[in-house]
Amino acid sequence: MIDLMKAQKCDVETLTEIQIRTFVDDNKNKPPGSSLEGPPGYNSLKWNSYWIIHTHYYKILYNGKVVGGLIMFDLGDQHFEIGRIWVDPDFQNLGIGQAAMAEMFKLHPDVTRWTLGTPSWAVRNQHFYEKMGFEKVRETKVDPELGWSGIEYERCINKGRKS
Asked: Tens of pLDDT along 31-51?
């Protein structure tokens, strides 16, 4: 059973610890010589506390246990950006991410445009987002400090039909 619940300040340590495990585990997929740093704030209690209060920040529960999280930003005009989704490496490949995203779409039925970005080396993420109905819209230039480019995705929903 997967649930998506609004994160509370009391969840910050758990969510930050899971992000650290998740993004450190991702390092095994990065190209040689590239930055091993995770996304901004992934390892910061202060950063996560701020966003829990100021945006749509959810915890992902699997059978009642927090196993991941999801951060979204409301950009206005029915447009949300998915800033980050993560699932603890010990709970990956169980359909948790797919169920969490499906729940996210249900919780925000008025959103007609979803966008997100992922690193070019994260082929597994790209497959996941495409499976969830996102389409690749562009690839950014390689960031010399990181050592990779980014892939940007979009999912537009026509309110005249079911998605």
From this structure: 888 888 889 999 999 999 999
Residue with tokens 């209690």: 45
H or E element, residue 25: helix 12-26
According to DSSP, the residues that pair with 70 across neighbouring strands are 58, 85
- Which residue has 């699997």 as its token pair? 62
Q: Assess if residue 161 is contained within a domain.
A: no
Count the domains in the chain. Answer: 1
Classify residue 71: in a domain, yes or no. yes
Quick one: which H or E segment has residue 105? helix 96-107
Q: Provide the domain limits for residue 93.
A: 2-156
- Whole-angstrom Cα Rg for the chain: 15
Residue type, 61: L
pLDDT in tens, 11-28: 999 999 999 999 999 989
Whether 50 is in a domain gets the answer: yes
CATH number of the domain enclosing 115: 3.40.630.30
Asked if residues 83 and 19 have their Cβ atoms less than 8 Å apart, the reply is no
Tell me how far apart the alpha carbons of residues 129 and 67 are, in angstroms, rounded to a whole number.
19
